[in-house]
Structure formats: structure tokens, C-alpha cells
Design brief:
Two copies of one chain form a homodimer.
Chain A (H helix, E strand, L loop, with lengths): L1 E7 L2 E7 L6 E4 L6 H6 L1 H15 L4 E2 L4 E3 L8 E4 L10 E3 L6 E4 L4 E2 L5 E3 L10 E7 L15 E8 L4 H6 L1 E9 L7 E9 L2 H5 L4 E2 L4 E3 L10 E6 L2 E7 L7 H9 L9 E3 L18 H4 L3 E5 L3 E5 L1 E3 L1
Parallel strand pairs in A: 6-19, 9-15, 10-22
Antiparallel strand pairs in A: 1-2, 1-5, 1-16, 2-3, 3-4, 6-8, 11-12, 11-19, 12-16, 13-14, 17-18, 17-20, 20-21
Chain lengths: 309, 309
């Protein structure tokens, strides 16, 4: 099943696709949210299926809908960094486990909504990614149970400003306890980067339109990821190239951050460029504008125009 | 006025202090949340004042209460990095504006609740900080209006693991567009640190117990900040040493991340050590345990035990 959230006369409505490409949808009753469905999906699913069957004749064309993020206010958006096999030969040193940062819910944006950039953001490039939507809550989830915590999959465009990343990097002498074990401190030359602006600014998280429920995606590591800028293909990759797989990531993260229903995990940028094309880093949306589009097989297409503000 | 959130028989209740130190409190009716009050404080304040006057005889001693984070589920927790004048001579290069990261709501913990650490977290040290609670929503807030968006102030202990910080740092060749302007990419030697684990793990955000409303704190830059570990004073600082002031920070951040009612902004670590004492970085809670206590004048004392799990 494919589920999304749309806005109708200012109210949230859950949309359910009635065909495979997700071109027509039934809207569930007002007041029911995606969070409600995820919270108790096993109980809700049969009635959603009935609503789709009964309502198919009244299905609407999705082209005219105003999309919100499929989970409009996730408790967390956790993003895995540098998680593609194409990164490997660029990493001089780094962890062998998933490293993550958090994007705020205010950075999220629905399908079709304009990404509103400022000149102050500097360069901003797209990062096409598979995103996991968490179903059942959990902490310290064993690897063998990790997939049971996946409600479904969606698409996120993890917009990034390398300009703000460089600006918000400190080279400094960090305070460390003395290495020799005596009381007192010593200084260690350190670099540290803060992601609040370069990953978390308003509009830096287009997401959706659909969540494909887990049963629709038997293998999340066999999906093609395509990114198209102004009609030109810039990424043609596969989720098979993710270094840390979905079960690894869900299990690992849950050992540090308790996962809750509706939490989003962005699995890391699909990087493999189209033959003859550039890299996502060449696509400066601040200068070039949009639209910018990410397609993942079996899930759908996320497309957003770009506006300057 | 001083407001907190407590849990009574599994339900959230807003507590309002009836005396200046906040030793006795009136509980407002069940169903009313801190988010509700913040959302419409001008309208709610008179009835809260009436409830305090009318209920003073039935006030409870706060010692026996189970505290939650004062805003139990803030939309965002934004933390300002390296924002103390004591940092200045340690910074070799870095931005002259506030640099920030986001902590997830799941990392927050109420006053008195145990910080549950794992050996896998490595070293974990306290960082005592003044936190701003946002009232009215806003984006691109002018400096002159910034203080109008402050609902009040609370205390946060921004727990940090330098072990996980080091582990989650990549030294890598970042992809940049070619400097000469021709199409294509080049590689730039870069360090980047991801804060998901070292700042965002469960229990890394003790906060509260009280929010002192803005009218109680005429000057947020004239407050003493004290951090006490197992009865030993490790920090004696003043918010006058914050490099970027509250109005600067609120205005600056709102240019990138839309601020919403109940959002928390942690203003940066109070660093000045007690005479003869060590630094907060010397206090490895994983090894030494708690309790760890932060007091800010005019707001209160946040104290948490430490447990291993």
C-alpha cells in the first residue's frame, strides 16, 4: 500500500493510492493522521483497505493535491552520513559504523512544494536518498528484529549547503582530560563541523510523496535511485550500493537513540553519476533553480521547484 | 512565574511554583500541557495566576514529584556551539556567527530522572547551559523583535561524549565543483563530525525543572551558572560570558530554521572552572557516576543521578 499526507482546505488528510504508480488516490476521513495509522497499523490496515475498495470510484487525481511530508511532524529525522560504496575511496579515516546527524522537522517539505532558498545559503545541492519510516518503537533492537520496526519507505532529498558546512567548521584546541591520567586538562587540535544550518535550514528536506509500506518493498537494497535536475539525469544509482544496510542501521541507531513511530531514517546519498553527467555537488540549486526530482523504483517520484526568497 | 511539567499517575500535569525557590507548587488540571500554555500565553496567564492564588493551600512539595522535561516534546532543540568567551583563545578558525546543531527530543530527560549510560558511550561529560524557550513562532525575526519571541528560560545539561565525537569524525576528500568554473568535480581534503550519537544519545539532555517566564529574568546575561558534581563545584560562570547573546542567537537562527512555540535553544556551555577545580571535561560520568547538578540563578537547580545500563 502507498500512503501520503495531503492538505485539503487547511486540514491534513491521509491519501491512499488506488493504482500502482500512485496517480489516483482515495482520501481517508479528516482527523485521521499518518501518525495514528503508524501507531497502530496492524489494527488500522483492514479498515484502510476497505476504504480504498469502497472509495475507488471517488478516487481523486493526485496531480491537483497539495502534498505535505508523509509524516508531517516526525519526532526525529536521522540521516546516515557517507553511506555509499562510492564514498569508500574518498574516506581517509572514519568510523566503520553508521555515523548520523539529525535534521529538524521544520526543514521538511512536501512533494511539489517550492524549496525557498536565500543567497545567504550559498551553494545548495541535492542528495537523493531512500528513507526508512519507523513503525514500532524500540531501543537496543537486535539485528534480527530490526526489519520488524520498519513501517515503510519513502524518498528524501537531503539538501546540503557545502558553503554553510565550511563556514560552520571550527578548527580549535579541544579540552581533553590529561592523557597521562593525572587530574587536569590538555589541548588537542581538532576540527568540528556543526550541521544546524547546512543540513537543517528551512526547505532542506523535501520528502514523499508516498510511503510504500514494507510489504511492497521485499528488498530495500534492490531499488534504483534516479535524480533529475531540469530534465537532465545526474544520478543513476542502486540502493545495493549502501554500505550499511537498513537492518544494520535501524539496529545500530536504536542502541543510542530510542526509535519512535514515524521517525525517519535517511539512508545516505545515492552518488553514482549518470554516464557523462556531473555529480550532485555540481548542481547548485541557488544558482540554477529547479525543478529537482528524485525517483526510487517501487516508491515514486519526489519533485520540487526552487524559488529564491 | 515558574512552570514545569510533572507526571502524575502517568499523565502530564503543569506545575506552577507558589514560592520563589520553587519548593511548593500547584498542579494545573490534567489535559492542559505546557505546549498549550506557550501557544497562547497572553490569554492563559491570568487563569494560571488565578489557579495559583486559589490553589495555594493545596500546593504540593516538589520534592516528591516526577519531573518531565518542562516542554516534554519540543519540536526542536537547537544548541549553540563554542559560545563562551573562554573559548576564544582556543579557536584557531571558525565562524563569527552562532554555529548550531540539533538534539532530538528523545535525548531529553526530566529533573531527578537517572541518566542511563552505557560503556559503549565512552567518556561522557556534563555541559551546563542556559536554555531559551521560544514563545511566538517566527522566521527572519529582526534583532529588535527577538526578545518578544522568548517565552522563558530553563536549564539544560548538554551531555557530550568526546569519545563518540572522535569516532564519528571523518577525514575525507569532499567532492567540490571545480574551482576554475569548468564543469566537473575536484576533491578537497576535509574533516567533518556528525553529532547524532555524541550529542543526541538517550539521556544526553537533562532539562528543567522550571521554566522561569521572561518577565522573571530581566537580564538573561546577568545569571550565575554553577555545576556541581558529587558535591564538588566544577563550574562557576556567568551568562555575561556568552559570546553571542540571546537576541543575537534568536534572530540569527530564525533566518535559517523557523522557530516554533516550545522550541528550545541551548545557549552554549558555561566553562569557567571553579578556583582549583578541574574542567567539565574532566568529569567522566560513565566512570564517576552522579549526581550531576546545574544551578542558574533565578531559574533553579537541575540535578540528575547517573546509572549504568
Amino acid at each position: 500500500m502507498k500512503l501520503g499526507t495531503v492538505s485539503v482546505e487547511g486540514a491534513q488528510r491521509v491519501a491512499v493510492a488506488v493504482d500502482t504508480p500512485g496517480e489516483r488516490a482515495v482520501l481517508l476521513y479528516a482527523g485521521l493522521t499518518m501518525a495514528d495509522l503508524i501507531e497502530d497499523w496492524a489494527a488500522a490496515r483492514p479498515s484502510v483497505e476497505r476504504a480504498v475498495t469502497d472509495g475507488a470510484r471517488k478516487a481523486v487525481t493526485v496531480g491537483g493535491l497539495t502534498w505535505l511530508p508523509p509524516v508531517p511532524r516526525p519526532g526525529k529525522v536521522i540521516c546516515v552520513a557517507l553511506n555509499n560504496s562510492a564514498n569508500v575511496d574518498r574516506i581517509i579515516s572514519g568510523p566503520s559504523h553508521p555515523a548520523t546527524f539529525n535534521k529538524p522537522a521544520t526543514s521538511l517539505l512536501g512533494h511539489g512544494q517550492p524549496i525557498r532558498l536565500k543567497q545567504a545559503f550559498g551553494r545548495v545541492h541535492p542528495e537523493p536518498e531512500l528513507a526508512v519510516v519507523i513503525g514500532a518503537a524500540g531501543a537496543d533492537i537486535p539485528h534480527s528484529a530490526a526489519m520488524d520496526h520498519v513501517f515503510g519507505y519513502t524518498i528524501i532529498n537531503d539538501l546540503t549547503s557545502p558553503t554553510m558546512r565550511a563556514q560552520d567548521t571550527f578548527h580549535y584546541r579541544a579540552i581533553h582530560p590529561k592523557q597521562d591520567g593525572t587530574e587536569g586538562i590538555e589541548y588537542v587540535d581538532t576540527w568540528v563541523t556543526y550541521s544546524g544550518r547546512y543540513k537543517g535550514s528551512d526547505g532542506f528536506g523535501p520528502i514523499g510523496p508516498w510511503i510504500a509500506t514494507a510489504d511492497e518493498i521485499p528488498d530495500p537494497h534492490a531499488l534504483t535511485v534516479t535524480c533529475v535536475h531540469q530534465g537532465r539525469v545526474i544520478t543513476e544509482d542502486s540502493t545495493q550500493n549502501l554500505t550499511h544496510k537498513v537492518a544494520d542501521v535501524v539496529s545500530y541507531i536504536s542502541g543510542y537513540q530510542t526509535l519512535e513511530p514515524g521517525d525517519i531514517i535517511a539512508m545516505g546519498t545515492a552518488l553514482k553519476g549518470a554516464s557523462g553527467g556531473g555529480a550532485v555537488q555540481n548542481v547548485n540549486l541557488t544558482e540554477l533553480g529547479g525543478p529537482i526530482e528524485v525517483t526510487i523504483s517501487g516508491i515514486g517520484t519526489l519533485s520540487n521547484p526552487v524559488e529564491m526568497r
